Amino acid sequence: MAFQESYSGIAHTNNVWSLQGFDKEEPKVTKAKTFYNASKDAPTRFQVFRNPDKTTDTKVDAGNPCQPAHPSRVMIVGKPGCGKRSLMYNILQNYPEDFAFDTITEVHVDAHSDEHKIFMDPDDGFDYICYQWNDNTDLGGQPWMHIGLPPLTRFQGKRADGTPNRNLLIMDEPPAIWSTKMMRGVSYFFNYVSTHYSTTVFLITQDYCSVPRPIRDASTHVVVYPVVNRNNMNTIANRCGADMLMHYLRLYCKDKHQSIMVDVTGDGPRYRRNVYEAIENNELQNELEIYDPEKSDSEDEKGSKKKRKKEKSPAKIAEEEEERERLEDQAAMHMGAAVAAGDVSHFDARSAFF
After folding, report:
1. What is the domain count for the chain?
2. Is residue 222 a contact partner of residue 68, using CB atoms and an 8 Å limit?
3. First to last CA, the chain
């Protein structure tokens, strides 16, 4: 009897499923997709397939080959007070006039910092949101609503014409100790979100070696300021594959506000000082004027006079060259006399003019 009741229950359940049509669903018929060469011979060309996720990408402008394209992943490394954010602002303001970011997102160690005010002017109306790396309320700060990394939906918006938004993501001063969750999240932004959701990313840090390798390897540009520890400089040069980095830092970075950029994209000059001063054949191709809008005109004029005073005139350069040639001729004459006398054991021609 118990068996019959159980069987009746099962039958009733099957009838319900039959009435709802679950047993009438037919398997979907699919076709096998083939990719083939119609000629069946060895290919004679390599076809380019455009990625629909990357329709808003821009190329390096021939008129400004040092300007990073969009999207880029720029890593800026330097000590406190060397001007890392100033360098980032210079890159942002040198995009073409018809280029604009639809969203600006920042992850910062302190969401209440005045550094964000440049993006928060109500008259500008930027779509700007600041996140905080960690909840710092235990340090006495005010609570903040956005903690951690932004969600993916922040970068999935589209314009009125249906094209993807151009996004800007700034990650400033991440914690020195990276958790596994944080490493995966930032790596996701560098390795996928940047290219598939039209997002240029800036990572600003004081410690290059603390940044996980997948993030360093995904960077398109690495900017390095001089640091005190020589071992750290060698490590940076080795890990970003920049064999001339140490040489250019010593040669061209005379103070803490100057930096060397390494471009690993191959689209612009590989080495530059201060982003826009290309280094080719061990020489700076153009030097930038340092402009500080907070200085008065008199201070700027004073600085210009000081710079002109330090610069040598063509006449002075020619005079020094003539003097050098005279000393070289004199050294050669002394060397000839010493050879004729047979006494060259302690003679150094360079001592005559160096």
Report:
1. 2
2. no
3. 117
CATH number of the domain enclosing 255: 3.40.50.300
Q: If you count them, how many residues does the chain have?
A: 354
Q: Buried b / exposed e across 48-69, counting CB within 10 Å, b at 16+?
A: eeeeeeeebebebeeeeebbbb
Say if CB 64 and CB 286 are below 8 A apart: no
For 24, 155, 169, 326, the CA distances from 265, given in Å and listed in that order, are: 56, 24, 20, 48
pTM of the model: 0.72
Q: Decide the pairing of beta strands 271-273 and 260-263.
A: antiparallel
**Nearest by Cα to 54 from 166, 151, 154:** 166
Sheet holding 103-108, edge to edge: 128-132, 103-108, 167-172, 199-205, 73-77, 221-224, 260-263, 271-273, 277-280, 283-284
The SS3 call for residue 223 is strand
Measuring CA to CA, how many Å separate 201 from each of 11, 27, 182, 194, 265? 61, 45, 16, 7, 15
Tens digit of each residue's pLDDT (9 = 90 or more) over 72-99: 999 999 999 999 999 999 999 999 888 8
Written as six digits, the tokens of 153 are: 């939906």
47 part of a folded domain: no
Nearest to 215 by CA among 228, 201, 227: 201
| Structural domain of 323 | 312-352
String of DSSP letters for 64-132: -TTS--SS-EEEEE--TTS-HHHHHHHHHHTS-TT---SEEEEEES-TT-GGGGGG--TTT---EEEEE
In this structure, the answer to whether residues 339 and 278 fall within a common structural domain is no
Average pLDDT along the chain: 79
3-class SS of residue 152 = helix
Strand partners, 108: 132
CA diameter of the chain: 133
Backbone angles phi, psi at 185, to 5 degrees: -65, -50
How far is residue 257's CA from residue 259's CA, in Å, rounded to a whole number?
7
Answer whether residue 104 shows pLDDT above 60: yes
